[in-house]
Amino acid sequence: MNKNSSRSHAILQIFVEQRWVEKDAGSSGPKSPNEVKKYFYRKALCTVVDLAGSERLSKTGSEGMRLQEAKTINKSIAALSNCISALSSKQNLNYVPFRDSKLTRLLTESLGGNCKTTICACISPSMVHYDESYSTLLFATRAMSVKTIVNLN
Question: Would you place residue 40 in the very low, low, confident or very high pLDDT band (cuts 50, 70, 90)?
């Protein structure tokens, strides 16, 4: 983080819908007056998320507004980590805290729904950022252990 960096999560959601019409096989001829059409559609939601880094507040030297932003970002990442921990645990899933932050509410379908999810974690090779890189790898490892089952609705 530096004084010009932007501290925010970025979420892009793309809703795709496919519609088509098929003529019923029971109709006779190309332009039968009794022609029955069947309408079909498929829907999909593609969510791309860029999470802001979770840095130690003592290392950033943030003050004022930047300090509040960093606290809020760290809080939302902690809520996301709690959801992933609950989903990846081998115990019975009685409660997953999706409602703890806006970020986890937006990612409810991506984390525990009927979807395919991919994660890309970025780490630093520098020893100065060892703690952040290590916690990022632990987060990614837990996230990879979440199993979702994708079915065509």
Answer: very high
What one-letter code names the amino acid at 117?
T
Question: Rounded to an integer, what distance in angstroms lies between the CA atom of residue 42 and that of residue 27?
Answer: 25
What are the phi and psi torsion angles at 45 (to 5°)? -125, 120
Which of residues 139 and 28 earns the better pLDDT score? Answer: 139
C-beta of residue 112 within 8 angstroms of C-beta of residue 80: no
Query: Can you tell me the distance from the alpha carbon of 109 to that of 21, in angstroms, rounded to the nearest whole number?
Result: 29
Helix axes 65-88, 130-144, angle to 10 degrees: 40
Token pair of 58 as six digits: 């003592």
Could you read off the pLDDT of 95-144 as tens digits, one per residue?
A: 888 888 898 998 888 887 778 888 888 888 889 888 888 988 998 898 88
Distance CA 82, CA 148 (A): 17
Contact partners, residue 153, CB within 8 Å, separation at least 6: 114
Helix, strand, or coil (residue 119): coil
State how beta strands 37-50 and 10-23 pair: antiparallel
